[in-house]
Design goal:
Blueprint lengths: L3 E6 L7 H16 L4 E6 L1 H4 L6 H18 L7 E4 L5 H10 L4 H5 L2 H7 L8 H15 L5 E3 L5 H17 L13 E3 L34 H9 L19 H14 L3 H8 L4 H27 L2 H30 L3
Parallel strand pairs: 1-2, 2-3, 4-5
Bound molecules: adenosine-5'-tetraphosphate.
The site of adenosine-5'-tetraphosphate has 19 residues, from helix 1.
Length: about 325
Amino acid sequence: MGKKIFSGVQPTGNLHLGNYLGAIKNFVNLNEDEKNSCIFCVVDLHAITVNQDPKKLRDNTRETVATFLASGINSKKSIIFNQSQVSAHSEAAWILSCTARMGWLNRMTQFKEKAGKNKEKVSSGLYTYPNLMAADILLYLADLVPVGDDQKQHLELTRDIAQKFNNDYSEFGGKDFFPIPEPLIFEESSRVMSLRDGTKKMSKSETSSMTRIELRDENDLIIKKISKAKTDPFPIPESIGELDNRPEVKNLLNIFSSLGEEPILNILNNYSGKQFSDLKNDLSDLLINRLSPIRQELIKIDNDEGFLREVLNDGAIKAKEKSEKNIKEIKKIIGLG
Ligand code: AQP
């Protein structure tokens, strides 16, 4: 049976291989299955939980949509829009923040990581971010959410919020109102790590761009970044078990595997005993082969402002239609209006 799928990406620039393998590549496959109904959202309201330059934010929103399209998401089959254009997201976030418990939010590791020692100075939006994420998903009564492994905890919170809402209002029409959404995590690509430190995830906000392959990187830069990627002094092993405690090597193999859609063991069979430079040369070729068509398409689409505006306008109309119907229901259940 077809699924209702929702996922979001922040327009914070520097979209990278982790975003592509952990999220966007999977969106493309889901979008191709005619039975699914997919909504892909550029979550600009999430982006403003940290300081943003307004002009850059607007450009990055366009760039994120262009990346969706260049990667192969079809805007005729899926709804593509930006969150801030559909006001029901903010309304639902407020309502659901009254369902979410402080104790639940206090456990969110992403807040702890992002706030660091600066807890008193970060925006309160950064703290309540998971409530908005729950609203995004539940507003469309989605049942499947493709995300990278880093978002698993937020999705568990979304499930808790949905369950509590359904229970709290069970006598008022809330029973089973929200489906309990499932994460869709593709194990081999769920966490792409930094090229310089295999224990940290590849991230847009890491200061050095040498830690990540960006989707706009030219071929020469891809070769340079992969050749400088950290490895270790030991030989390429024969078995997966021998990759324990070798995070950087494991990461390169994971990237190879998910990009080439080939089991890690096959790759080990081909490279065990060989030099890292052999593995890296072939990995660079594979990356160039997969990413350069996306980059070329991205540049083309990004220059077509009219087309991007049309995709976003059209997506917002469709998203409004669905979300307004559901927010009305939610308000009716809880006695608003
Ligand atoms: N390293 C990663 N490996 C696999 N998946 C990843 N995702 C992000 N990084 C990796 C997945 O990409 C989707 C969009 O993420 P996002 O842009 O909304 O926010 P994020 O997870 O906070 O991305 P970054 O790059 O890590 O940004 P910063 O540096 O701002 O924290 C999500 O599905 C995410 O799981």
